[in-house]
C-alpha cells in the first residue's frame, strides 16, 4: 500500500474543440480551433499526502480536477489509482470524491441534509438498514462538527462554512480514500476558512485521506500541502515539496506569484506587479508560454519550449532559472 | 493627517424595515478620510462594509434607510440631499468602482462613448474635447493602444482591462472621493496587484480620498493608509494599517489576523474563531462579538463598548485605553 502511490497521472491531456460550426468553417475557410486546457501533465501522490495545484484562472487546474473524478474524459494519457485494503481484508479500488468550490450550488436545496449525506450510502449500497444509515449520518455530522439534529434541516438554513462541512460529510459518507478539493474555501470568509482548513487537516490524519487540492490562494496551499505544482497555461512549470518551493522558488512565474500575493505580514510593501495577462489557451505564444510576461526571457525562450526537467525532488520548466 | 477630513461619517445608522420589525444593519458607524488618503474598510460578509459605502454614495435601496447620524463631504451634509442633487454629486464629487467590472459597463455601448457620456454629464466640454479627455483617461489607467481600444466594446476586454475602464469612468468627473467596493475580488492575483498599484498611484496623483471596501486583509495591508475593521454593523477597530495588522487590539481583529495562513511558516493548526457572525435578527445584547470572544467577561454581555477616540482605537471593554502620546 505504501509502495504504490494513491494517484498516478501519466501524460494527462485535455483538449476542447471550440471551432465554429462546420458550415461556417467551410464557408469562411476558418481552421479548427483547439483549446488546450491541460497538456501532458504527470504526477504521483503518495497515500495520505496532499498534492496541490496552484494557478490563475484559465490555467486548467479545474479541468485537471474534473478529469481526476471522471467528470471529464482525458483526450490522451492516463489517470490511475492505487488499490486500498479495506478493514475486512479485501483489496479494492479506492473511492474518489470531490468537494466543490461553491457550497451554495453543490447541495440540492430541496433535500434535507440527512438525505444529501445518505444518498451516496444508498447509491453504493454500503448499508441497507435505514436505522443503520441514520446512525451513520449522525456520526458523520458529528465528525465534521455539526449536530445530529441538523440532519432534519435544509441547506438554506446553514451558513457557507456549515454547508462546506455538509459537503465534506457527504464525501466521507462513501468511506472515500481520495478527496479532490476544487477551491474548497475560496467562497468562505477568512475566519471560517481557518475552521474548514483545520477540519480537513484533522480528517486527513484521522482517516488517512489523500487530497488533491486545487487553489489559487498560495497561503492556503502553503498551509495544506506536502507537494505543490504551479500550473501555467495547461502545463506544470514547477513542482516539488511545498517547503522547498516556498523557501526557494525557481521558475520566474512562481517567483512573481509569490511576490504578488498581498501579504499581511508586510504592510505597505513596495512591489513590482506582474505585467500583462494570461494569454489565451487557444493561441498560446510560441516557445515558453510565459515568455511575454517574463523578466529574464531570452531569444531561446521565444522559440523553444522548455521541458519539465526533474532535479531530485523538484522539477522545473525554464531555460534560464 | 492634520488636514480637515474630506469625508466624515458620524454615528451613521442604517435600518431595514421588515415585516418582523426594523433590523439595524449599521450601528453608530463613524469614520473619516483625508484628501489623498486610502481608508480600508474590512470585514466578513454581512459586516456592513458594503452597506457603509452604499449609504455614502446615496444608493441605498428601500427598505434600507438612514435612520440616524450624518455623512459630511467637504463639511457639507450629503445624507439628506434630494435624489436629483445627489445624482449630480455622484460622478462629479464621488466616483464609484464596483466588484464586477462586467456588470458595471453597458455591454452595447463602446467604452469610449460611455466615457464621453460621463465626462459631458459632469464637465462643460465639447464632444471632441471629451473624446480627447477619454483617451487621456484610458492611457492614465494603463490601457495599451488606447487609440484603437477606445472604440471597442466591454466584451472585447479582459477582466483586468475592464476594471481599468471602470476606474477610468470613476475618474471621469474628477471626483474628490472614490468608493471602491471589492475592486479586485473578481480578478486573479497577478491582475489584482496591477489594479491596487494603479489605485494607489491615482490616489497620490489626483489627491483623491479612496474608501477601499474589501474582505481581503492582504489587499488592505498593501494598499491602505488607515483601516477600519467592521463586525456585525459596527466599527470595532480603526487605526493606521501598520498598527492594526501588526498589533491588533480588538479580540476579533486578533483572531482575524491569526486565522490567515502564514506564508513564512507552516503551523500545525490555524487559530480559528469558532462560530459565525450573528444574524441581524438575532443580535446578542452587549458587544456583538461576545459569543465568540475568548476573553469575554460579564460586562460584555450587557453593554455595548464604545469606540475610543484615539488614533488606534478599539471598541472593547477588555482593551486598556491607549496611553496618551
Keywords:
heterodimer, A: 321 residues, Rossmann fold, eight-stranded mixed sheet, three-stranded antiparallel sheet, globular, B: alpha/beta, seven-stranded mixed sheet, 11 strands
Structure, briefly:
Chain A is an alpha/beta fold and 321 residues long. Helix content of chain A is 31%, strand content 22%. The longest helix of chain A has 18 residues.
> Class of chain A, according to the CATH hierarchy?
Alpha Beta
Strand content of chain A: 15-25%
Summing up helix and strand content along with how strands pair, one would put the structural category of chain B as: alpha/beta
Oligomeric composition of the shown chains:
heterodimer
Mean pLDDT across all amino acids of chain A: 88
Helix vs. strand class of chain A: alpha/beta
Query: What is the fourth-level CATH superfamily of chain A?
Result: P-loop containing nucleotide triphosphate hydrolases
Question: What strand order characterises the main sheet of chain B?
Answer: 6-7-8-3-9-10-11
* Distance from first to last alpha carbon of chain A: 37 Å
Helical segment count of chain A: 10
Order of helices and strands of chain B: EEEHEEHEHHHHEHEHEEHHHE
Number of H- or I-type helical stretches of chain B: 11
Strand order of the largest sheet of chain A: 7-8-9-3-10-11-13-12
Taken as a percent bin, the fraction of beta residues of chain B is: 15-25%
**Helical content of chain A (DSSP H or I, runs of 4+):** 25-40%
Distance between the termini of chain B: 16 Å
Protein model, in words:
The complex is a heterodimer of chains A (about 325) and B (about 325). With about 325 residues, chain A is of the alpha/beta class. Chain A has helices at about 20-30, 60-70, 115-125, 130-145, 160-170, 190-205, 220-225, 240-245, 250-260, 300-305; strands at about 5-15, 35-45, 50-55, 75-80, 85, 90, 95-100, 180, 210-215, 225-230, 235-240, 310, 315. Chain A has a single domain (about 5-95, about 175-315), classed as 3-Layer(aba) Sandwich (Rossmann fold). The model of chain A has no long low-confidence stretch (mean pLDDT about 90). Chain B has a domain at about 35-60 and about 80-275: Rossmann fold (3-Layer(aba) Sandwich), CATH 3.40.50. In chain B, helix 4 crosses helix 6 (about 160-170) and helix 6 (about 160-170) packs parallel to helix 7 (about 190-205). Chain B is globular, with a radius of gyration of 21 Å. In chain B, a hairpin with a 2-residue loop joins strand 1 and strand 2 (about 20-35). The longest helix of chain B is centred in the middle third of the chain and has 18 residues, at about 190-205. The chains are: A alpha/beta (about 325), B alpha/beta (about 325). The interface of A and B includes residues 161, 194, 216, 222 and 268 of A.
